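Example 9 (inverse folding). The structure is encoded as follows.
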């Protein structure tokens, strides 16, 4: 694999992460208009409608196992969206994203066969402490709780996403999980009042659904053709840093030295977990297009 090809693959992977964070930051902008639950509902519903329209799942035959795995993934996806948007309403985007990343790191530690695997969640936990600084009394504790619940759902997302990948290929599995996620969040939160849901918000919601998951799916597919899986997975661990950057540039959220050090610790922990032996779950979840798009 040539240096130029690898460089192109790295740029495509970075573009994918940036696209995802633009979509997430765009969703955060809905908070003032719709609140966290309304913003999560709009994103998930628009994404589900687009995926169903493009994939047309009625053309395929799904096994009972595939439907069950897709439904469980949909529940986990809805939980992620609800809790992450609730966290982002109270915490900076970089902090919420870093705490949520504890989910896949914990899965990596649980599936590792060595006690040393727990070093990386501990490093990430230290990073989260730097981000939240509980000793100052500054963090919004409810926001931290929401972010931790999102991390739990992210862990479930990793596990169920692997099951969906075993039963379905590519974006086909999302055609089951995303409609289920939209149904779950509709049952939990309901759609926002019609007076709040303007045509402008609806169009923006569909645009954000293109940003996540469709454009990242294409970019990551192209990146994986140019990069080894291990290199791609390592690059994906930069996602918390991109969340911090998106909050800084797109949302005007500040970032001090503690924030930079905290996110750096989470990124290092992610890279350590991916590169460690016997951590296939997190490596697989970060290296397959269509399997790693948290709907937050």
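The amino acid assigned to each position is listed next.
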């Amino acid at each position: 694999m040539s240096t130029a090809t690898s460089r192109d693959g790295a740029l495509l992977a970075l573009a994918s992460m940036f696209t995802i964070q633009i979509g997430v930051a765009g969703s955060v902008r809905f908070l003032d208009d719709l609140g966290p639950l309304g913003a999560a509902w709009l994103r998930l519903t628009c994404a589900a409608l687009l995926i169903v329209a493009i994939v047309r799942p009625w053309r395929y035959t799904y096994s009972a196992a595939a439907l069950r795995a897709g439904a469980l993934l949909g529940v986990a996806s809805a939980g992620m969206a609800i809790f992450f948007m609730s966290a982002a309403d109270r915490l900076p985007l970089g902090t919420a994203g870093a705490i949520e990343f504890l989910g896949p790191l914990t899965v990596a530690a649980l599936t590792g066969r060595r006690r040393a695997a727990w070093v990386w969640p501990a490093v990430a936990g230290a990073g989260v402490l730097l981000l939240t600084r509980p000793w100052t009394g500054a963090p919004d504790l409810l926001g931290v709780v929401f972010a931790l619940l999102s991390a739990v759902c992210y862990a479930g997302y990793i596990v169920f996403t692997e099951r969906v990948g075993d039963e379905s290929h590519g974006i086909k599995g999302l055609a089951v999980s995303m409609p289920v996620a939209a149904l779950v969040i509709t049952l939990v939160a309901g759609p926002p009042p019609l007076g709040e849901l303007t045509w402008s918000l609806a169009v923006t919601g569909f645009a954000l659904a293109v940003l996540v998951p469709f454009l990242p799916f294409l970019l990551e597919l192209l990146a994986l053709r140019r990069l080894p899986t291990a290199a791609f997975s390592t690059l994906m661990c930069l996602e918390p840093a991109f969340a911090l950057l998106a909050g800084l540039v797109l949302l005007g959220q500040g970032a001090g030295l503690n924030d930079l050090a905290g996110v750096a610790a989470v990124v290092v922990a992610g890279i350590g977990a991916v590169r460690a032996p016997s951590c296939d779950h997190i490596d697989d979840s970060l290296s397959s297009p269509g399997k790693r798009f948290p709907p937050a």
